[in-house]
Amino acid sequence: MNSNKIILSVIIPVYNTEKYLDRCFDSVIKATMQLNYETEVIIINDGSTDNSEDIIKQYCEKYSHLFQVNKLNGGLSEVKNLGLKLAKGQYVTFVDSDDYICNDMYLKMVAVAIQKDADIVVCDIERVHEKEIMNKVFSCTDIYSKEAFEQIINTPMMPASWNKIVRRELYDKIEFPVGKVNEDVAVTPIILARAKRIEVIHQALYKYYQREGSIQNSKFNESKFDILDSSKMCIDRTIELDRHKAEKIKKSIYVNQVLSLPINRIRHESFWARYYLLRRCMKKAEQLLPDIWDDTEFIMSCSNKTFLVRKAWKIAVILLKNKWYLPLCMIWTVGNILEKLLKSITKL
Questions:
Q1: Mean pLDDT, the chain, as a whole number?
Q2: Cα-based distances in Å from 87 to 39, 93, 173
Q3: Fewer Cβ close by (within 10 Å): the C or N end of the chain?
Q4: Nearest 5°: CA angle at 120, between 115 and 121?
Q5: Are 14 and 45 in contact (CB under 8 A)?
Q6: What is the pTM of this model?
């Protein structure tokens, strides 16, 4: 492999995250400077109104492999699409500007990519909180699946674009949906299916920071339903794939993205907000994805966690399928109370 060519393009979308930029940029700089290959870091300022633009400028003036792009605010998908057009690396990856990475993340991932001639290399993720005791590592694979594609597809964190380095041509003729949140859901499964070889590093090299006010942690509103549109877009795009991979993607999307929205997110809302959102969510889900209940037995058996979680998941699926939303909301009220009590006891 010619070391004069750019091996890795790192794309960092920035919007009003001045508080976190030093940590993010410093980690990426340390990680890229460990490589013996040429790299580029494309930092795209998406119309920030805070001091982000000045911070980016200071870093780009200091480090020659950092490049600043300023644009009017258009959202994360628009930034990612632009970054992919500008990227010149053999591999591309993303970093959210409020997150950070381990110093040896790219050294390890690029080494595996070169040694194994991999199209994609994936690592584990650590979800990082202000209180370290709340930190949690998420595996990038499902141990109950056999080959790499299925292992990665069958996980809730599968859509994330930032714990993967991807051969750039895999993104050809596919774009992130502009104006939608959860944009990765529409793209990453297809990229994974296009890959001929996927390698895994079971180390939490990416640090996914949980901050108040971020898109993922903001108060629930109906914009979160965008994940249903992204899911529909992804499933429509599977027409280019063989039947086996298309079916695997569909099942994973239904379990880990579509049904995860009511069961893991809406469940925690106040009672009547929960009931209203649940009805709206499932109505839209069934309109966009009319075959969602065709394999209910598979869906009910998909939670591979503890015995109690599996039972709770199965009950929720049955009630959702039959549109028994009020009883489900009542059950979740009790469950939420018990969950809070258990967390309080655990902290003692």
A1: 91
A2: 10, 10, 15
A3: C
A4: 65
A5: yes
A6: 0.91
